What does this fold into?
Amino acid sequence: MTPHCTRCGAPAVYLRRYTSERLCVSCLVSTTLNRVRRTINRHRMLRPDDRIAVAVSGGKDSAVLLDVLCRIEEKFPRAELVPFTVDEGIRGYRDAAIDCAKALVMGHGLTLRVFSFEELFGITLDTLVARRPPHALGACSYCGVLRRRAMNHAATVLQADVVATGHIMDDETQTVLMNLLRGDPYRIARNYRPRSRPVPGLVSRVKPIMELSERDVVAYAHHLSLSYHSFPCPYAAEAYRSDVRRFLNHMEHRHPGTMLAVLHSAESIAAALNASSPNMSVLRCERCGAPTSVSVCKVCSILDSIRSW
Ligand code: SF4
Ligand SMILES: [Zn+2]
Ligand SMILES: [Zn+2]
It folds into this structure.
């Protein structure tokens, strides 16, 4: 027998485990939008007249982010969405994803701006990885630092008030747990810095879909036939994150709601730490002037190492 939607009685297509709701397509969409609206309002992520730079990677998470924001922002005519992609230069992977991102963005009547590592840092990730000596860090360590800088650059060029990224509950809880396991709760505080306390020189970043699970996102993208690229990055091999992911998925399966609880705990930790150190000192990189916590920022250090390889 076909199960029925807990909300309206129509045939259900999705079981949202952590709320125990069976949902039809229409209720999947409406509850997803309500969830994201609640997240945005609770954290005061967006303002009615924001110019929002939306990071679109071509993958499913940012496809859902863009679709949801387009629907929510319909009611805010003064708000503007400006999608962009960071092209790290990963042949056969990012170029295919960018084609998907372009199709998705065009479907919303918008234009995609692309910012590449090559143009910004003079090197693609492929070249960096190929030149990297054996003792060097994993590709993701370089990519993450350079991508954050590229996103800030993109937001500045696009004259955006805020950058929205497609981080979902699974990514966020993994990062929170990794920071705790590595003994770095201050990183959690930095990650959840409220928009009301911006760092000079950094465009605020918000994560409107961080309370949607991977299952939610897959269901939404599938039932709305969103265009997205689903191949994994050839350099994705962060063993520590994979262990944490396995553990959290196991806990979520056995105890639905675990991930949401981790996320809410992280918000409380961040609020307490941010309140106890209201003036976290921010330095300026002595080379490039970007905000940093040490005298030479991570981007300049990476670019120095590459020159010495
Ligand atoms: S998996 Fe790692 S190398 Fe690949 S895009 Fe993500 S951060 Fe960059
Ligand atoms: Zn329904
Ligand atoms: Zn620098």
